[in-house]
Amino acid sequence: MAKLGWDETGKHLYETGTDHCVVYPAVGTAYPKGYAWNGVTGWTESPSGADETALYADNIKYLSLRSAEEFGATITAYTYPDEFAVLDGSAAPLDGVKIYQQARRSFGLAIRTILGNDVDGNDHGYLLHLVYGLTASPSERGYSTVNDSPEAIEFSWELKSVPVAVSGDYKPTSIITIDSTKVNSDKLKALENKLYGTDAVVSYTAKLNPIATVYTEVSDPGSVNPSEQTPAWYERSGEGTTESPYVYTTTSDESVVSEKTYYTRTEGDNPHSNADGGWYERSGEEGAYVYTLSADTEIVAGTASASKTYYVKSTASGTDAYLPLPDEVISTLRPSTGG
């Protein structure tokens, strides 16, 4: 146990700001794709309900009953994505044409607010708010003439929610809030990859060109048919450091990684050790073959100490942003157990 303290350094916490807003149209009970919402100026959570009903007996206050709590919120913005316009009761029969008073669809939201303190300021951390089962009331739009004090219209929507289920001994909920300063950063990153999506990832896999033993005929030393390579082979330069990062460039050695046959010079029936350092390519027809020194000697070197590494470029597809339901959020953030 320790004595309580007040106003300790680093514990002067405050919340402010909004950013990283994403809207997720509902499809059934899921929120399979998110869309960035630019221009958000404010987010206000306004829960209601939980009103007291007092019961009296024996001339005293006997019980205090509370009604169910409901979640509500207000979001303000200078603009909104087209995907939200549909949720806001509009439809587009033609590009550039909207009609209103249509059915309002359910959606989810993710939005960040800044968590600051007296040491780090606004860089201390953030709160990530995930909201489910929302519908929006119409926004008032007030237009006025351009004057010497110009203002942009700020739209405002009141939001109501139908809670979604949570496993265990928990009641359904409309909102989850995650504190970035208290959860594992790797697990939070995994959650944000789901919320915000991921870009395609380019990687390069090493393809070591084997050293060919010196025989009279060597088929396809690279063992790769270029028609099966999508995209081409790459060579790597640099040292993989901050000062000298790896740089991958398309190899100019395409003729070597084709299905191509190379030849060594021979004396009698025995291949010799490529004393001239060369591999040969053959042209012409049977009975009139012409052997010329290959320009590909760097790749199919005739000594056991020489080799060259190629890299195959591959691209892993990115993932769409989606809003995981509460159980998946909790599972993603749950601390690992065991060794």
Description:
The protein is mainly beta and 339 residues long. The protein has 2 domains: 14-198 and 320-333, Pnp Oxidase, Chain A, CATH 2.30.110; 202-316, no CATH class. 8% of the residues lie in helices and 40% in strands. It is built from 3 helices and 24 strands. It has helices spanning 82-87, 185-196, 326-333, and strands spanning 14-25, 35-36, 40-45, 48-49, 52-57, 60-66, 69-70, 72-77, 91-94, 97-99, 107-117, 121-136, 155-161, 175-179, 201-209, 217-219, 233-237, 247-250, 261-263, 266-267, 270-271, 280-283, 290-293, 308-316. Strands 1, 2, 3, 8, 11, 12, 13 and 14 form an 8-stranded antiparallel β-sheet that branches. The longest helix is centred in the middle third of the chain and has 12 residues, at 185-196. The protein is elongated, with a radius of gyration of 33 Å. The two termini are 30 Å apart.
SSE blueprint:
Elements (H helix, E strand, L loop, with lengths): L13 E12 L9 E2 L3 E6 L2 E2 L2 E6 L2 E7 L2 E2 L1 E6 L4 H6 L3 E4 L2 E3 L7 E11 L3 E16 L18 E7 L13 E5 L5 H12 L4 E9 L7 E3 L13 E5 L9 E4 L10 E3 L2 E2 L2 E2 L8 E4 L6 E4 L14 E9 L9 H8 L6
Antiparallel strand pairs: 1-2, 1-11, 3-8, 4-7, 5-6, 8-13, 9-10, 11-12, 12-13, 12-14, 15-24, 16-19, 17-18, 17-24, 20-21, 22-23
